[in-house]
Amino acid sequence: MGLTRPQFHRWLALSALVFALGAVLSLTYPIEELSRRLSDFYFRLRGPQPTSQQVALLLIDDASISRYGRWPWSRVLLARLVRAASAQGPRALGLDIILSEPQEEAADRDLAEALGSAGNVVLATKIAASPEHSAWAEPLPLFARRAAGVGHVQAVLGPDGICRSVPAREVTLGGPRWALALEVARVARGVVQEVPDPKRLADTAKPTSLDKVSPDFLIIDYHHQITTGQSPPPFLSVSASDLLEGKAGEELRGKAVLVGFAATEMSDRLPTPVSDRLPMPGVEIHANLVDGLLSGRRLQPVGWGVQTLMLLGASLVLTWVVLRWPGIKGLLVLPALLLAAYGAGYVLFAHAQRMVELGPLMCVGVLVAPAAQLENLIVVDRGLTRGLRQLQRALQPATPEMGGSLRAAMRLETPAPSQDLHWKVELLNELQAELGSLYAFDQTLLEAMQEGLAVFTSDGRLVFRNPRWQQFCDRSNWDPGANLDTFVGALGDPKWGDLSKRLSQPGARIESEVQLGGQLLQVRAIRLPSTQPGSGALMVVVTDLTARFERDRARAEALGFVTHELRTPLVSIQGFAEFLLRYPQAAANSDAAATIFRESRRLVAMINTYLDVLRLDSGAQPPRREVLDLTETVNQAERVVQPLAQAAGISVKLGMDSDLPLVRGDPNLIAGALLNLLSNAVKYSPQGSEVSLRVLARPDSVVLEVQNPGPVIPPEELARLFEPFYRRREQEHTAPGWGLGLAFVKRIAEGHGGRVEASSDTGGGTCFRIVLPSTSPASERSSSSLCSLSADPPVER
Fold first, then answer.
1. Same domain membership, residue 189 and residue 90
2. pTM given for the model
């Protein structure tokens, strides 16, 4: 059946449990009542049956009561009725009328003679309540001696008050009394003996017709109840008034005729499985039973052995279904199987006259799903307990040092052993919190990585990528969700061919540097470990080395420039010092000394600038915090740059807001940064142009802004202007410099808690701003462009 050995044992154990529960519950009233109701519905499903050819009814109905008066009738009228019925030649005549009370002697003799002349009349007897005690209401001896038989009319009512069977016999002081239906069937078969033998009553054509009569009860195979205008009726019925007045035909000939009450006012009615609003008359109940006995169509319950096997089979099949399909499919198959079992029971009922108790089977069908789920919960609980116990042992320190570090890292406390669920819940909560924090940490770490990271399955599908991978793919102009083969093909490096085979073992890795789209990339791939051989995922990490390469190149060029710049003043100093040594009395000595002094100052200035940048980067030179006189600082920087501007033919325009807020900082560093921006503006401005210096007040800051009409700087280069040693390629051979000035400005601004901004366009040239926080109450910092040069936001570094 496709089950492993553990699953097979689990199936047998669960089937045994369900079978035991079904067997025990089948003894309870709700399940018994369910079985009765399900069996009762079979009679309605079967529909109308052909009119019986074995039994007919002679009814004392409402028309008869209206014509001959209320019951009891005189014995003379009953004698006329018996003679009229006997004249039609019935095979047996059963009177479902108790004749236990005497009337006039002449009338009783007349009825006795009618019974005797008929020769095939069966009288009724039953238990009747008397003032003193319960006693049998026997027919008068006068009548009993002339009758062909006497049968009881006791009915068995179920717990729900419905008649489904009658006792086969009742024990009295005078001997056992067989049921009226059995006596009528005996007389109709022509068996003449005092006590009917069911085996002797069997039809020779149907040897099994009466040989399986239950010694205790006769189950009634009900036709549908007789209703007005019903076609075909279950039994031919004749009104007693019609028979007495000669209006009836030959409907009673050759049939077993039952005489009884059908009038509405008579209380001889019982509820049956086919009754609607009006219960069925007792005579019609006997007619159903007699018809079954004579036709050999009698219902029998299946034996307890067969019932037990059916219950066991249902337990095995239904349990296998819920274990084979534990989801919605199994829940849909279960009702289908139960409906099929109900249909099979109907087939047995309609064609084999066997009654199956379906209540236990339905009970098993209802119990099997919860039992399977309960068993699943037990298995899960055992597995969870076993796993948590292993986790407890794993968290217990093997050594003090290891345990201390592990406990500190995991922040878990091993709960004391317990048999309840609290320790499991507490441990799971601890683990959930820890895993949540680890997940958040890993997610933040992956998002903050400077490298692009992607994970591919063993068949090359992308299952994870971080934001840097997305950016890398956007710059490379290819789909970020592409598979591994597409990525390897884009690299164009034969070293990466057949990657899955080369990284077949967990922990295997490959690494190389490739050129892709003008970028220098370092690509690494590693096979991640897995619980199944050959199913590990591949992790690919891409690092962009372009910026590092450019920075190293810029540093090398800057170092060469610094070396050249340091060598130039040193050569001058060395040359003029040698001149002074050789010609100490020469007239040009004063000029040589001045040159040596000027070049040494230039050398010291270059070295100090370089050292200042290094100190600010390392934090070894924290800026001073004192109230600045911005007006004096700005004016001093403007005065210092004026000679340089005049020599270049450039004018410097100063603009300053009134009522500037207070600013704390190092006045020398602020002045140096401002002087650097002004000197750069003069250096890169065309002759005859104007450089503007403005000081602008904002609610929570002061902006020092330098604008010049020099060449436009592309946006991709604006962001790198403040990197150490970076110089634009267009300026490397047109203007001397180290590439440290703007880096120096950026460090100073950030050291004072501020920032630097730069923007450039064709309409307004290039604008640099130093934004310094003020000591006044802060409000929302304005981030709009102060130069109004471009719609693009300024670049902040």
1. yes
2. 0.52
